[in-house]
């Protein structure tokens, strides 16, 4: 029948090498649940500061359908000051250990090689580095010695200065070219190319308006040939989009729009979305998966 076209291959989703089996065989976009063990992250800061509360929330997200729990100890909120290495390790490692013990797949959200090392030794399965190797010169050297996947994010500078680093000639091609430069460095350090996923860094050194073309022109990032992760969940650009009478939508009220972005990204075959509300995004990627299967 003319309307019956061959099924689209589920392998259209490009994913990094080195993932644990349950993630390597997924036929849909993966859902990464955000677990910030920080007093000041923008959307959940302070809520999961104590290790026990953080662990409970990580387990809750896993039972709600998260494929990966992304544990971070350092806030990347615009303007945030850095914390010490010891403080970061003290915040995240007990949480990583407990989640791994419960057989949860954990990624470590850190810019520091030493934190990444401690987390991998505690059983984490991937490294999520918002600086894409730029904050710590040791990161790529460490990565070259191990075999876990790595998320390399577009990054121009630390949180204290990133809001002043938003000059682009063309945000879409500039972000792509800068990620390409970061990729050159990571490959040059000896890291296997198949292990690296890329992320345009929604809200990082980007004005509210600059995030939209980046999301709308994912083909520019796709040209780089790496798996893609998107972290748009509850961010300021959504709050501004949904503002009423000049007042941005509060963080909790950004969920439906976040789910809409997850749907569009899954449709586009991104490897993973990093979100706060796991259930809604997981539902969205299941819908997309089923729709693709029915084609
Ligand atoms: N955003 C935040 C933190 N870590 N990691 C990746 N890979 N991509 C992101 O967009 C990203 C990240 C900041 O948001 P949060 O305060 O909600 O964690």
Radius of gyration: 18 Å
Q: Report strand %.
A: 5-15%
Number of helices: 11
Mean pLDDT across every amino acid position? 93
Distinct ligands, ions and cofactors found in the model: pterin-6-yl-methyl-monophosphate
Number of strands: 8
The separation of the N and C termini measures: 13 Å
Estimated structural class:
alpha/beta
Please bin the fraction of helical residues: 40-55%
The global form is globular
Describe the secondary structure blueprint for this structure:
Elements: H1 21-24, E1 30-36, H2 51-63, E2 68-72, H3 85-101, E3 106-109, H4 113-121, E4 126-129, H5 138-145, E5 150-153, H6 171-188, E6 196-199, H7 208-216, H8 218-222, E7 229-230, H9 236-241, H10 255-267, E8 272-275, H11 278-294
Quick structural gist:
It is built from eleven helices and eight strands. By secondary structure, it is of the alpha/beta class. The chain has an eight-stranded parallel β-sheet with strand order 6-5-4-3-2-1-8-7.
């Amino acid at each position: 029948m003319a309307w019956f076209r061959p099924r689209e291959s589920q392998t259209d989703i490009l994913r990094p090498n080195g993932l644990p089996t349950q993630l390597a065989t997924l036929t849909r976009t993966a859902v990464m649940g955000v677990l910030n063990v920080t007093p000041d992250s923008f959307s959940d800061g302070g809520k999961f500061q104590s290790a026990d509360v953080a662990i409970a929330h990580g387990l809750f997200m896993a039972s709600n359908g998260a494929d990966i729990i992304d544990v971070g100890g350092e806030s990347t909120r615009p303007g945030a000051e850095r914390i010490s290495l010891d403080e970061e390790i003290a915040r995240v490692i007990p949480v990583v250990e407990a989640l791994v013990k419960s057989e949860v797949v954990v990624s470590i959200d850190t810019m520091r090689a030493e934190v990444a090392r401690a987390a991998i030794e505690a059983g984490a399965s991937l490294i999520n580095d918002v600086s894409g190797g730029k904050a710590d010169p040791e990161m790529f050297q460490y990565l070259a010695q191990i075999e876990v996947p790595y998320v390399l994010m577009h990054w121009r500078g630390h949180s204290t200065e990133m809001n002043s680093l938003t000059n682009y000639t063309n945000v879409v091609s500039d972000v792509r070219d800068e990620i390409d430069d970061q990729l050159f460095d990571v490959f040059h350090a000896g890291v296997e190319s198949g292990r690296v996923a890329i992320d345009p860094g929604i809200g990082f050194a980007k004005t509210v308006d600059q995030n939209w073309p980046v999301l709308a022109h994912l083909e520019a990032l796709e040209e780089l040939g790496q798996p893609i992760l998107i972290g748009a969940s509850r961010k300021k650009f959504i709050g501004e989009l949904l503002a009423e009478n000049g007042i941005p939508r509060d963080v909790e009220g950004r969920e439906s729009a976040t789910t809409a972005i997850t749907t569009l990204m899954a449709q586009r075959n991104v490897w993973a979305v990093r979100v706060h509300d796991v259930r809604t995004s997981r539902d969205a990627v299941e819908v997309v998966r089923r729709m693709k299967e029915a084609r």
